[in-house]
Write a sequence for this structure.
């Protein structure tokens, strides 16, 4: 493993590249305490996974209450041939924080990336994911749980272009929106003529937990071939009243039944994480341990 | 008296389904509701469970000398009312074992008893399921998720076994079950009914379950009321002669 020009004291404006050339037995973890990081300017990190390597990586973006501040990050993921990356972004920011992350993803032949985003808490966050699937048999999965409270906003924008044969992409998000929170899910996937036998999936499921919560979900496919598997969908609703009744009919009080069903909805995102150590990290994560 | 229903009127979607129904159930009694489709059998058990579809417009229901209509769904369950659902809903993401332990502990908490820890719960489950040869793999799956019709019914039985209610209400639990599965249902229910404080209110269209669970009372519903009450012989007569022969006209014609 190599860490190139990665200096936390001089992180502003620096272009950092992390090259992973050995399998990671434990996930690499970077914790960003946004109160301490004076990231007024864009901070870039390129994560490069060498050929045939399997790596797992966790980035945490957290802070406590701070003055109104905007943080900008840029991420580049490059996964070489037959390599794979399991990446978790875990975010729990405060109400005055605005967090913008632009991600560009490059996958070589037979490469795979699984990205899971947990966007929790308050504030405003914008995530852009741009992927060109130019090499055959590459596989992109982006899963997300957006769980917002109060007046927080989340924007998740995905642009995926299929240019090569046998590639798959799956952009699947769950939103659990409380209070007056607002989320946007906008996924655009283009399948070009060369991208035969592609598999393209987009899905947004939302539970609105307040009359003031809002979701704008726009899954969008542009398909230029016939030989592919594709589906897209968006659902919005509240918790299933038949399920709530069933749990209560066995003695579980309404508020607890509500919690159980909400957790079940959210856990589907957690279940998509393949790396057991990343799963363990999510289960045990306590913000107070870090800020 | 365990349950006393007086002049009960219930609407579903503004349509009157129960029209002045009376029914008394004492501890230890087995009551069967029979009747053609749409006469109000399921509406009665759903009303007793506080199902959101049912709007009580008139009447009283006393349960263990308390006003049942003042209790919510969960409180009724914790007071010992159990309705087996005709078609239990699938709940993906909620583990069956976790669900059951939560339900048992909520009931224990309600009765100010100590909650079961995981080991105690597993021990209890293993013991109860083994008695009836019910596959414990059901417990490891999500609640009813992907279950076949028979598995869903077995899962209702598991809940019944572990929650040990005072008023068991079975809504066509025998439908879709083969002969052997019906025998398991009967064995579970008959074992539970050895406790003479416990009562059963059962809806069925067929005699095959009644040959295993002998009722004390058979009630025939018509147009939202009980129009005839008898003993097991009434169910046998109905099975052999049909509704018309015993003076009940077919409402569906």
């Amino acid at each position: 493993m190599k860490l190139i020009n990665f200096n936390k004291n001089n992180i502003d404006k620096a272009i950092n590249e992390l090259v992973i050339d050995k399998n990671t037995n434990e996930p690499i973890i970077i914790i960003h305490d946004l109160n301490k990081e004076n990231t007024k300017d864009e901070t870039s990190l390129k994560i490069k996974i060498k050929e045939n390597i399997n790596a797992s990586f966790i980035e945490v973006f957290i802070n406590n209450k701070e003055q109104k501040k905007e943080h900008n990050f840029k991420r580049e993921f490059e996964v070489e041939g037959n390599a794979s990356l399991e990446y978790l972004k875990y975010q729990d920011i405060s109400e005055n924080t605005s967090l913008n992350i632009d991600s560009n993803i490059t996958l070589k032949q037979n490469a795979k990336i699984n990205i899971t985003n947990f966007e929790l808490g308050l504030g405003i966050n914008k995530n852009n994911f741009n992927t060109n699937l130019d090499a055959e048999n590459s596989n992109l999965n982006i899963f997300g749980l957006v769980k917002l409270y109060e007046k927080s906003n989340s924007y998740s924008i995905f642009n995926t272009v299929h240019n090569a044969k046998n590639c798959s992409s799956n952009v699947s998000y769950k939103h659990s929106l409380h209070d007056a929170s607002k989320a946007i899910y906008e996924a655009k996937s283009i399948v070009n003529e060369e991208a035969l036998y592609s598999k393209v999936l987009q899905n947004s499921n939302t539970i609105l937990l307040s009359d003031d919560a809002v979701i704008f979900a726009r899954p969008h496919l542009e398909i230029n071939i016939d030989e592919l598997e594709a589906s897209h969908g968006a659902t919005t609703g509240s918790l299933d009243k038949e399920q709530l009744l069933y749990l209560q009919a066995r003695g579980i009080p309404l508020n607890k039944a509500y919690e159980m069903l909400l957790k079940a909805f959210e856990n589907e995102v957690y279940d998509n994480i393949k790396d057991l150590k990343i799963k363990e990290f999510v289960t045990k994560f306590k913000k107070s341990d870090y800020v | 008296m365990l349950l006393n229903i007086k002049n009960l009127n219930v609407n579903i979607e503004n349509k009157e389904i129960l029209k002045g129904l009376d029914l008394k159930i004492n501890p230890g009694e087995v009551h069967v509701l029979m009747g053609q489709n749409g006469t109000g059998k399921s509406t009665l058990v759903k009303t007793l469970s506080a199902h959101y579809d049912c709007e009580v417009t008139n009447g009283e229901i006393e349960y263990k000398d308390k006003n049942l209509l003042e209790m919510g769904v969960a409180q009724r369950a914790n007071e010992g009312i159990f309705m087996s659902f005709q078609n239990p809903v699938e709940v993906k993401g909620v583990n069956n074992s976790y669900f059951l332990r939560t339900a048992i502990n909520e009931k224990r908490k309600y009765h100010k008893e100590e909650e079961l820890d995981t080991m105690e719960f597993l021990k209890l489950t293993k013991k109860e399921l083994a008695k009836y040869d019910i596959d414990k793999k059901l417990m490891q799956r999500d609640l009813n998720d992907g279950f076949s019709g028979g598995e869903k019914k077995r899962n209702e039985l598991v809940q019944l076994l572990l929650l040990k209610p005072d008023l068991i209400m079975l809504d066509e639990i025998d439908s879709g079950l083969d002969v052997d599965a019906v025998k398991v249902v009967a064995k579970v229910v008959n074992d539970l009914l050895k406790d003479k404080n416990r009562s059963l209110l059962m809806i069925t269209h067929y005699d095959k379950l009644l040959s295993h669970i002998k009722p004390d009372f058979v009630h025939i519903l018509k147009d939202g009321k009980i129009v005839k009450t008898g003993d097991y012989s009434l169910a046998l007569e109905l099975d052999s002669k049909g509704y018309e022969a015993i003076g009940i006209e077919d409402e569906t014609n």
